[in-house]
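Why do we bother with holo predictions? Because pocket geometry can differ from the apo form. Keep that in mind while you read this record for NAP.
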Amino acid sequence: MTSAPHSDPAPRRRIAVVGAGPSGLYAAAALAASGRPVDVDVIDRLPAPYGLVRYGVAPDHVKMKSVIRVLAKPFDPATVRFLGNVRVGEGGVPLEALRTCYSAIVHATGTSVDRSLGVPGEDLEGSIGSGAFVSWYSGHPDFTKLDPPLDHPGMAVVGAGNVALDVARVLAKSADEMADTDIPDPVLDALRASKIRDIHIVIRRGPQHVKFTPAELRQIGELANADVVVHDDGLFAAGVPEPEERRQQQNLAMLTEWAARESKDRPRCIHLHFLRSPVRLVGTDGRVSALVVERNVVDGDRVRGTGEEEVLDVGLVVRAIGYAAEPVPGLPFDAATGTVPNAAGRVLDGDTPVPGAYVTGWIKRGPTGVIGTNKSCAHETVAAVLEDLDSLPVPEADVEAVLAQHGAEPVDWTSWLRLDAEEVRRGGLRGTQRVKVAELDEMLAAARAADSALSRG
Ligand code: NAP
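The structure, written out:
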């Protein structure tokens, strides 16, 4: 096929990716690498990129955070532009306004709400969702004032996923071990003052059902500062049915070995309680003072309660039972799955695609999978955007003007690099690679240290 000799080049489409976490950044990279006439802006409400890699991956999982090098690539040289410190939606730039300056918007804002257990006492002080707790120790600016009570020797984590392991491990490690991570200084001070000795992981099903990944489970068995005690009630001796999945078989083998282990009298202890469901949190003076759990028996792949209760002496309960998404104002939402209805990333209103609206990451498929899962997820969405590209509108409104009109003061990539350098500098003072700046005003001050102009990619 030959093209017409004097045809105009295809007009460039401007695409916004909202959310600078792994799913958004994989999508931005794929769009930029497509060779199609697109300009890509990544918008995030925080002045720092990387979303859950920065605020969800545990601070001591340094290797896992090295994916940042890959995620940063499209910004340097600037094939993609970063617009941090820009809130989309309530209190920020309305979605309708954003639609006037972009041909398409890829929503990659994840799932930000902690699921609740639905048991009495959950609102007591000292009952905290894992999203909030993890955000606190990761230095997320929204959670610097969380102040979780670490002054009681017992605490409980509810759930048998990797987030429960992260929370247990961070609390089980010594403060000196945690000093060698990027946690903010006030968090390190709180961990140094922690009185926690017994960390109870409350698991509603059996050892053959846990959702941990074996590599993460192994880590709690190798801690220098904590023993692991498996409370199996003779479960292993009675014989646990061999699960089908290799991951579950590996978990079961590890747990079976641990059940026979001797305690080494380490300073802290992680207790694994199987077949226990939380039934209520008990409070004293408005604060958690105990967690009551009910014993379960296995019933096929599920469990049922026996009515027999036990009391765990704890001053803090962290629910690590998964996350839910908040609806994105202006987009359809399926409350049952906590996702935006979509077909391969195209947002659907009923059966009809919403023009120019796409999703990727946890808001598209729910809060599952590892960081790498977001790459294939983002590629699927980008394939849909590129397929639709020629039919997308060419926007007329100016991005900067629209953002300014709604009071946004973006932090660009160069400014983020200044904040990045400040964190590395603080790390040097503590003898670690980086120490996070957590307070928003300090983040902005560091980002804007030399100039406040929005530099263009
Ligand atoms: P998850 O893997 O879905 O685990 C949630 C756990 O909560 C399950 O054990 C579930 O039990 C339990 N649960 C749910 N509702 C409950 C209730 N009402 N009462 C008691 N227990 C309840 O979720 P997650 O740990 O939040 O992790 C989210 C995703 O991030 C996962 O894909 C995870 O692998 C990933 N992640 C990975 C890493 C890593 O690779 N290092 C770190 C953190 C997170 P049932 O099984 O009985 O439903």
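The chain has 17 helices and 18 strands.
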